Amino acid sequence: MRIKLEPGEHVVVRTRPHPRRLILPFCGALLILAGAGYGLGWSTRAQLPLGWEQWSPAIAPAILVLAALLLIRVFLRPLLRWSGTRYVLTSRRLLRRSGFTRRSEGEVRLTAILQVIIEQTLVERLTGGGSLVLDLGRDRMLVFGDVPQVRTFKEFIVLAIRDLPLTAMFDGVDMEAEPLAVTDESINGKEQDW
Fold first, then answer.
1. Mind listing the pLDDT tens digit for each residue in 23-65?
2. Considering the entire predicted model, what is its pTM?
3. pLDDT tens, residue by residue, 56-103
4. Rounded Cα gap, residues 85 and 105, in angstroms
5. What HEC string does 128-144 produce?
6. Whole-angstrom Cα distance, residue 20 to residue 111?
């Protein structure tokens, strides 16, 4: 996954979502394989029930095709979705890319982030994952779900924001320059149109 970096920008962290989301598809795949094995064993036994003998040549291929289709639906699709999703933190941006054939990409500049919130369920706390909620102001929230080692990832974001130059936070206004001197005479000398 190539990212076009701006001058002076570098990648801090690149990760996939937490693999915990593959537990249920994996268990489903085991059940499908166990059911297919049982079905194949049942269809090849010597004494089939009456009426099943004529279908015995077609039962085994039908079981295999059905098992393959179920495996694609239950396990392969979530696996591809998981492996095609990436979270990338650079020194200036946070990106989420997903998809193989149809790619979608979301990007937020670190200068737009006002607050980083971690949300975790009990299972997520036990596995170290969680969701990052980015507050972008004006009731805009961006959620990055199933982030592995979410607390460490949050620390990397906070450090990257801290390391931004001061001028990046204010659209190029040089905050290190001397402030203008404002006196009472300059304010009182002007007419007030209220």
1. 999 999 999 999 999 998 888 777 777 677 777 778 889 999 9
2. 0.72
3. 778 889 999 999 999 999 999 999 999 999 999 999 999 999 988 888
4. 10
5. CCEEEEEEEECCEEEEE
6. 31
Whole-angstrom Cα distance, residue 31 to residue 70?
10
Give CA–CA dist 171/148, Å, rounded: 32
Distance CA 41, CA 27 (A): 21
Q: Which residues fall within 8 angstroms of residue 157, CB to CB, at 6 or more apart?
A: 89, 94, 110, 113, 116, 132
What dotted CATH number matches 11-16+89-170? 2.30.29
Residues 143, 165: Cα–Cα separation, whole Å? 26
Q: Measured between alpha carbons, how far is 169 from 165 in angstroms, rounded to an integer? A: 7
Q: Where are the domains of the chain?
A: 11-16+89-170, 20-45+57-82
CA distance 95 to 144: 10
Tell me which of 42 and 194 has the higher pLDDT.
42
